[in-house]
């Protein structure tokens, strides 16, 4: 998973994502999905770490097409 340095509004528009908030199931703190993330064929938003560990981070994701993956590879060669 990488955290691309992109404009969050454009990211949301491009992948039809919405910034959401959700209570942590561990500590009850409000988490906001304010960081764009990407892995091979997934794009999403994730809440920053807040001390409860990766499994408690709230995130949303969408799966993208093969075409979209190709575009991505042209821009970010980091993705395997
Ligand atoms: Zn927590």
List the helices and strands and how they pair.
Elements: H1 8-15, E1 21-23, E2 30-32, E3 35-39, E4 42-46, E5 59-63, H2 66-75
Antiparallel strand pairs: 1-2, 3-4, 4-5
Bound molecules: zinc ion (ZN).
Zinc ion (ZN) binds next to loops.
Name a few traits of the molecule.
80 residues
Q: What is the overall silhouette?
A: elongated
Number of helices: 2
Radius of gyration (Å): 13 Å
Order of helices and strands: HEEEEEH
How would you name the oligomeric state of the polypeptide chains in this document?
single chain
Largest sheet properties: 3 strands, antiparallel
How many individual domains? Answer: 1
Number of strands: 5
- What is the SS-derived class? alpha+beta
Bound molecules: zinc ion
Question: How does this model look, in words?
Answer:
It is a single chain. By secondary structure, this protein is α+β, with helices and mostly antiparallel strands. It has one domain (8-75). The protein contains two helices and five strands. It has helices spanning 8-15, 66-75; strands spanning 21-23, 30-32, 35-39, 42-46, 59-63. It has a three-stranded antiparallel sheet, covered by helices on one side. The chain has a two-stranded antiparallel sheet with strand order 1-2. A hairpin with a 6-residue loop joins strand 1 (21-23) and strand 2 (30-32). It is elongated, with a radius of gyration of 13 Å. 10% of the residues are buried. The model has no long low-confidence stretch (mean pLDDT 86). The site of zinc ion (ZN) has 7 residues, from loops.
